Amino acid sequence: MKNDLFLRALKGETVERPPVWMMRQAGRYLPEFMEIKKKYDFFTRCQTPELASEITVQPIRRYGMDAAILFSDILVIPQAMNITVEMKPNFGPFLPSPVRTQADVDRVVIPDVHHELDYVMQAIKVTKEKLNDEIPLIGFAGSPWTILCYCVQGQGSKNFDKAKEFCFTQPMAAHQLLQKITDTTIAYLKAKVAAGVNAVQVFDSWGGMLSPSDYQEFSFQYIQQIIDALKDHAPVIVFGKGCWFALGDMAKSGASALGVDWTCSAPNARYLSGGQITLQGNFDPSRLLSPPEEIKKMVTQMINAFGKDKYIVNLGHGILPNIPVENAKAFIDAVKEYGI
Amino acid sequence: MKNDLFLRALKGETVERPPVWMMRQAGRYLPEFMEIKKKYDFFTRCQTPELASEITVQPIRRYGMDAAILFSDILVIPQAMNITVEMKPNFGPFLPSPVRTQADVDRVVIPDVHHELDYVMQAIKVTKEKLNDEIPLIGFAGSPWTILCYCVQGQGSKNFDKAKEFCFTQPMAAHQLLQKITDTTIAYLKAKVAAGVNAVQVFDSWGGMLSPSDYQEFSFQYIQQIIDALKDHAPVIVFGKGCWFALGDMAKSGASALGVDWTCSAPNARYLSGGQITLQGNFDPSRLLSPPEEIKKMVTQMINAFGKDKYIVNLGHGILPNIPVENAKAFIDAVKEYGI
């Protein structure tokens, strides 16, 4: 690997400067992505290896991040599990037959990921060729709890009330669903590593909706299973949005790095995670709307606060569609210029 | 005051058991509220003292909480400031002319609250008569940041991206708007105290969208102004949803109590707030969907974790419309039975 900054930071090694990538870096803020989006619908983009790999490398060509992340979606998992997933324009994910009962859970299938999600593995192979060992490729999956949220709610939500209602009124059915998702996710991520990704990230986007004890019960124990199964195959990054309260447990999980969002300051994140594990984050995506010079100043302050080692510069959540390309550039450039 | 448990807890005094009330306790989960809702639209209910007071005392009659909170809405403030606010059924607040420019901010008026919001003061007087000094009455307002969120976004949102964009690209205009809201809110809450409320609560529902430094700049400095102006008139409770990171500053602000949500455990909340100030919260509203016996067990555990003193039992956010009345009863009863 020509640029191994990202992998070295995951190992906790001393680096010249921290590596940088952005969650959703292959996405709607890029004009070249919008060109492809105009021509092909969401699932065509995900399921066509040539398109998925092209989208994956677009931001690398433009900005030269230190890691690429395969263009895909966390909802390919429920789709492969026999749950219909639609992506409605200007609405987001829509699951017309949400899981609400034990009978619904019984109908959920644990698929052969090599068959059902072969298009992902093909996309990884094509992407690896395009990247030509310049930088590492990250594969990802949603946490079982976050996937359950969509499966039960049937769409995005402010508070995922139906998902929580399902867990709190039918806990046995909920745990069966979570285990099915976990088993599928483990097989999926192992297949991705076999296909060539250099690290995996688990996105627990909605873990912060749960109390610390419910988080343990309905989310973290399943993430732990994924870490246990994957950590000897590839470094695992766990990102739980709003999950500051779980950083202590996450730090002991065997994960190589933990993502943090912008509500958790660098000192708080280091304190809560015990000070030893590599952290990733945590620039407020909305702050990329500030003028480029201000962005650069804030990025430098952020690196100083986290420290250059055991740190991966990133946003605290996905980049927003309305971010000007020159502002994203200021973010990346500030990291590359750090310490120069 | 016949039952002064709530006021004593706000003073940090030793009590037989902690007081209890629920955010949005006068609301859609109550069949008697739905009867009134069928007949009168939202603003009629807010602006008719007889209706607002009736709605306020409904949950007290049914459950006997230790405090009442005046039925109203945080958006009566922007409405009084010359910003049109509509309440759309099945959608929520809608502001057809959101504040997006300096010129928009210039048009925002600091009203004479005694005139524009006289209906609130009348509602307080009628409610106080109905309560007959049995229990205290709480008045409330949104935090300036949370009010700005609606004024700029124009509706509810998952991330209030337009509100944040406004603050980060036009900070001077944003601060002018925040100061106008703050001045109005201070006059409003002082008038409420003069009309008879026994304590005030500031709801910073969307403070948790901001990083700790942006929280200081765009939210907390204005809340501090409100506390400074009100604390000698009535006890002030500050509730910032998702604002665990600000509990330390809040504890030094002169507020009498701090609200916490369910993501912040009792030990974390006591630690972060320095262990001396009264705390209020933090039952996950969705957990009221659990069976009543389980609710009672969890409430007892929660009181044990916070300790019975310097503590006000509440939810960690407003009660949900789909909570069965017997489950709300289990929540209140568990507190009343505590230690017996």
Distance between the termini of chain A: 23 Å
The share of residues in extended strands of chain A comes to: 5-15%
| Poorly predicted ranges of chain A | none
Mean pLDDT over all positions of chain A: 97
**Count of distinct structural domains of chain A:** 1
DSSP, total strands of chain A: 9
Fraction of helical residues of chain A: 40-55%
Q: What name does CATH use for the topology of chain A?
A: TIM Barrel
Q: What is the subunit organization of this protein?
A: homodimer
- Note the run of SSEs of chain A as H and E: HHHHEHEEHHHEHHHEHEHEHEHEH
Structural class of chain A: alpha/beta
The CATH architecture of chain A comes to Alpha-Beta Barrel
Give the biggest sheet of chain A: 7 strands, parallel
Strand order, sheet with most strands of chain A: 1-4-5-6-7-8-9
* Biggest interface, residues from each chain: A-B, 30 and 29 residues
Q: Any idea of the CATH class of chain A?
A: Alpha Beta
